[in-house]
Amino acid sequence: QVQLVESGGGLVQPGGSLRLSCAASGSIFRVNAMGWYRQAPGKQRELVAVSTSGGSTNYADSVKGRFTISGDNGKNTVYLQMNSLKPEDTAVYYCNVDLQRAPGGPRFRYWGQGTQVTVSS
Question: Where are the alpha helices (DSSP H) in 4-115?
Fold first, then answer.
């Protein structure tokens, strides 16, 4: 089994910063990608940022230049540094990991429990 533990959400004023963390543990052979999604009330879950084991990153247009994804491959941990936060960034943020549990085995995706980010004055 695989567990994802998220931390770092909270309430912040517009223009402020937050840093989210997500650590994956359990039966993991290789992590192929780790990323963050978010879901605002009444909206579909959307990709925020993703980082692959090959070193590439991808961001939603709405967060480019404000958010930075980074990772510690040795610890199977991913971070999301969020700067210049806006009220429209308010959402539940979910960590996602794409991994293999054995050499040559199938890929699995796991989700964290979600952490609330609220941007409000």
Answer: none
